[in-house]
Records
---
Amino acid sequence: MNFEEYFKEELIFLLDTQSKKEAFEQIANGLYEHGFVKETYLQAVSEREEVYPTGLLAAEGGIAIPHTDHIHVNKSVISLAILKEPITFLQMGTDNMKVDVNIIFMLAIKKPESQLRVLQMVTEIIQDQEILRKLRLSSSKQHAFSIIKQFCSEITI
């Protein structure tokens, strides 16, 4: 599986937003404008996040991996958002533990059977403290994309 086919420079966002709702809107609107998701995606991903939180505590800070059902997706892609200031998410598998997230990997997966492999790809990234640190310090979407591209060329899933 080729990481690069899932990451697009135009779907990397450096966000200065105050809420999860605003972050989701900006990311989902970008996905929609580029034709990767349907108009229903934003509402679906927001509703799913309320029921199944996706915040994770990584060594380098909080990560979130919001996603929703394939029926809201036109073509598979992973959007990356680097937040200027952390946003509070609920931790995955809990209903009350909070995580301050500053990197969001928003997944749009068209084929349900490929979801596990895509999650494995994202897991590879979030387990690498140095990559997360470099992403958090990215000054441009081009720089963040080059970090992901380099990382993708070095691993195989």
---
Amino acid sequence: MDSLLSTMEFHQTVPEQFVLPPEKRVAGEINTSVSLPVIDLRGGPHCYVEDRDKLIEQVLQAGKEFGFFQVINHGVSEQLMKDIMGVTEEFFNMPKEDKAAFYSEDTSKTNRLFSSTIYGKDGPRYWRDCLKLACYPVPETINEWPDKPTKFREVLAKFIVEAREVSMMLLTLICEGLGLKEGYFEGDVSSGQVLINANYYPPCPKPDLTLGLPPHCDRNLITLLLQGEVSGLQIMHQGRWVGAAPVPNAFVVNFGHQLEIITNGILKSVEHRAVTNSGAARMSMAVFIMPTMESFISSAKELINEENPPLYKSFLFKDFLRIYTDLSAKRVDVMEAFKVNG
């Protein structure tokens, strides 16, 4: 518990274990001339969209060019988004004795509170605290969530259902746009755990010495991120880092490795990282749609032909997770491991 950044009153220096080797530190200019596409979902999952073809085109184009985009008018209310960020902030601000039951450095535990992220046995530590929870189906998971603050469970239960609906809407649009059979992304490929990472990045006295999260790609199918009002997310685009400026009441959407493999590389899982700052604490809430552990992942047959042979091997999702962890989530290494003839 003493290693939790959120339990310390202030940080005047960066502890040695958080100081990155020079080659891993933030370097180079940020490309400020490029911004992520912002897509209007016209009301979200339960709204009939007249210009559906145009919406599908926008989603696919953003996915092909960036692998990231932001969505507005997605159907999750502004009040609910404020509420989930509010109760999460309350959680991190609680006395450490109230959080002690959830604290664990055991990476095999699904539900836990921990400090930092360590990739590799002797890797550096990163400047964040994280509350990780399995959240779906709600009736099967809710009793394992923190019961403090008082409304935490109530708010998260509503939020996770609505956030998942937005994710499934986007997957349906992608399915239609790529000509896959109806319901392709339903079933095992999207009915595994819905995980959240509630992230807290305190002000850092020397942001140039550390990172909140290292460059990585997500291991799952699709991710929704509620990133709050403080900037920190950066995306690799055409060899340069691009900042994802917060858009009010928007979700940042990005594709995981599984979606890139299923679409045979049409849609990309793109490297991203979290940087720190010295002026303000930053919070974010990431929602990960996961396949079941026994889900069989392969490139969709509809997207394979003589001109477009399969780029990736087929595998069980549980086997992918093992290799992803062994390779410290590095995109080049992970994708190379699953390439045909890789």
---
Amino acid sequence: MSVLIRPAGPADAEDVARVQYLSWRSTYDGLLTPRSLARVGSMWGAAHWRATLERVDDVVVPLVVENKHHGIVGFATCGRQRGRVPFYAGEVYTLYLLPTAQGRGYGTQLMVAMARVMMARDLRSAMVWALSTNHVARRFYERLGGRPIGDRTGRLFGERVPEAAYGWPDLAVLAWMQPQK
């Protein structure tokens, strides 16, 4: 299967919004309230993503994974860590795949690509936050070598949500991982 991972641009906004919406509806059903799920489409639609992708700079790097036969099936963003977790310079901000694209190695390929992008920007370590109740995401990060490094209570649409952090103290390990299905 021919797959391309490339930087995202404003022309990708509708596809990115579609991937995020469908991924959230599938992944977070039962993990977030129906009210929060309903807000995803209105808050992060194509207009939001077009504006976001028009003002991309070296701080936030958006990537898409494109399947030759199905178009954009996933996207991710990364950059400098936004919080205050010691010892981790970079952060994976988002990683979303269409439900039909999950389990096919695309997420691993995006993680490897983000590790390489961050290392090219001299960010040698990175972390990611995941909902504590999202066991699929947590196992995914653990399979890729992410170590549990902390917990917090975040806020999403005014809803308090428990989150777990995973970290890679040396991104080189992830950057040179061979993606497998």
---
Amino acid sequence: MPMNTDRIQTSHVGSLPRTPELLAANERFQAGEIDLAGLGAALDAGVADIVRTQREIGIDIVNDGEYGHTTSGAVDYGAWWNYSFHRLGGLTPTDEDRWQTAEKRRSSPGNVVLTSFPDRRDRERFREAYEDPTAGVLAHRASVPQPKITGPLTYTGQDAVAGDIRRVKDAMAATGATQGFLAALSPGSCARVRNEYYATDEELLYACADAMREEYTAIVDAGLIVQIDDPSIAESWDQVNPEPTVEDYLDFTRLRVAALNHALRGLPEEQIRFHLCWGSWHGPHTTDLELKHLVELMLTITAQGYSFEASSPRHGHEWKVWRDHPLPEGKVLYPGMVSHSTNGVEHPELVADRIEQYASVVGRENVIASTDCGLGGRLHPQIALAKLGSLVEGARLASERLF
């Protein structure tokens, strides 16, 4: 994960729009007509195409578009998490979709009460908007049931992650890309399914850590960067109802960070980057926890790079946080310079301004321009690719001014 030497490098968070052929194959998979192996041909062609597209746009650090993470359709806010259901043993399928089913459960430490999506505090505050299908707050999505944990968690995705690695490395070789990454689920997010086996949160989290470590290790051993997807660090704040104290929430979160660091032990930091966000849905997000409360804890995660929302309307001002929280030496930031939550395509000058703001507080060598979150499943393909183009052009403009 080299730092910038003569220009601002670019990347993105992972998910990119799927091809029509891959969406059709995923639909057949969801219907039980084909298995994971049956997705192979569509994945081979799709990954080759999306890596070539990234390189043609000018993205420096590329990935497979998360094509190997099964999706329920063109709109899917949860593929980053749902893919793990097909790579873990110890799960039993259910017909419950946590986006639609209300539930509450007490978690520890911090003695917080987690609710499901319908009971989130942002949704309570804007109930009419969330329930209006024409408002654009929640786009139409297929219902995706989540399993429950009924036995010891094990990792069963060896063939799947090997396929992800092979496809992205083949595509990188074909296009001359020298830096690549693959996304993988964090223990804290893995543990959000219903648990009927482990006695405590700690047991559950460390079981998730031991299972998912196999995926992290495979990606790193292949010479790629592993991106740890962990919206739960920030997003769960809105899922705690009633609102907790910040300290109680941080106690709750520290255990999740400890489990992640356990999973990452011994792996090279320069091949690890961590992604934090406040959720993919296009809601008001007025109950997001501010970055200033999370930044020090985030920096204790064993990673060289940290990716987070930096251009959304709720978080675009938070570059100032880094004035009071110096970036440790050798670390790199991947702030989002374009957003997944709006159809407006950011002007390259705005992108350049945002890059320069971060460079002014953490140094030009430590800012890799990225996206707020994955663009696939959240934006129309034309808009998503236009945003990547604006990101690259903005980075070029900023580079002319900073180097």
